[in-house]
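Sample intake sheet
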Amino acid sequence: MKIKNEIQQAITEMGFVNLTPIQEKTIPLLLMGKDVIGNSHTGTGKTAAFGIPLLEMIDFTSNEIQALIMTPTRELSVQIKQELTNISKYIDNCRIVNVYGGEIITKQFAQLKKKPQIIIGTPGRIIDHLRRKTLDFSKIKYLVLDEADEMLKMGFVEDIETIFEYTPATRQTLMFSATMPKRIVDLARKYLVSPEVVSSVGEDLTNQDISQYYYKVKKENKTEAIYRLLNIYRPTLALIFCNTKAQVDKVTEELIDRKINCDKIHGDLPQTTRLDVLNKFHNGVIEVLVATDVAARGLDIKKVEAVFNYDVPEKAEYYIHRIGRTGRIGNIGYSFTLVSKGEVRKIAEIERLSNSKIKKRNIPTYDKVLDVKSSKFVEEIKEIINNESLEKEYLILNQLISDNLKEDEIIAALIKKLNALEVNHNTTDDINETFNTQDTSRSKDSQVRFHINIGKEDNLTVSDVLDFVTSNVKITAKEIQDIAIMSTFSFFSVDKSYGPVILNNCKSKKLKGKRIFISVSRKSRR
């Protein structure tokens, strides 16, 4: 495969040695000008699979927009830009701009005036710019739809089709999707020309470089369980997933109290805060990140060694996406899932749908954790002795010795004082549980579906619904699912926890100049 020297130099510095399977299959096809459907999971090197050929083919002496990359979330958009910026490090005049909601649009106006060749963004904001005529896709040569299945789940299908209509029919199109539902196939048939289908998804949907374990533990002991596992395995970087934003807040606070270097991201935090936290995690300033599925969507941190499922995810596909954040591109990773009594039925379901085996393990005893911490403490002391100046410390030591204190007594007393400084929220009990993994109790449907009284005849779009709900309720666009715009009415689904606040905050508000009547649909769906 022949690529520019500038790209080769950059990817060599980034640590590229061998191409991943999806890269080996995709890059040559794109360089040949083929349309491609890529069926690949998170962590397989998708961004480089389309980024390398795009950067090879684009004319950087031109001021025209030549490539558009659409993503479901702003976080994924930002990460793709960072990856492409790294790959194009030595390419002169390469200009890449992000456009997404949640950022002041005038800031994006200024960036677009710099005449970028590559646009990366979310469908709603892209359409906004197209209507304002601040984006011109008439010269687009390459269009990438990343995580297409996620965009369709969020209800963006009409927005995607609208954007396609702004681009030339002669463009080259790549569509990446972890799953291939009928709507993805239909979209491909409509907009792609004789596409080549490439896949890195085999019978085993989860990465074989990830050791997967689950632990039976009471809900109230889950933070203690994570604390013990973090101390035993000592991952360089670790991700902890919770099902709700409130749980993220609680777990983060409890771990910080236990002196764990961690932070959090979820939809209620300002975008600037989320991006700052992700950057610190990426650079190792933060070692443990607690997150919701939505906030961490598209997260590509190559050194994540362990993923913790504080809550068992509602769906098997969420589990696959979560643990795919570790074991990236040939690296070894660990996945730890904490299972309370009401969640045990989900483990068998996840194993069946992902065609993988999750091994049962026991949470380490508190004594084992103390042994590991003591060994770590000894290593740290040796490191200080071998590599740091101790002149000031010797002054204190000599003063203590002059008071006729023995050196071994001084050392033991100092260790005791250090241990006393550590706030102890831990229990020394055995926290493993023995409940039956074949528990067949059913959880209630987790979503509620809403009906609103306007639709296509009112010129309502998916983006209008997302903007309306997110402006009245603290919820992210990704958490609003299955938006359906009918002729005179529309539907959308959210987690049940948002039900009361949506009914209260959205009633009698105006949208498209019409007063909104919102109600729970009789037939809610997952």
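Comment: The chain is about 40% helix and 15% strand. The chain has four domains: 5-199, 210-365, 367-421, 447-520.
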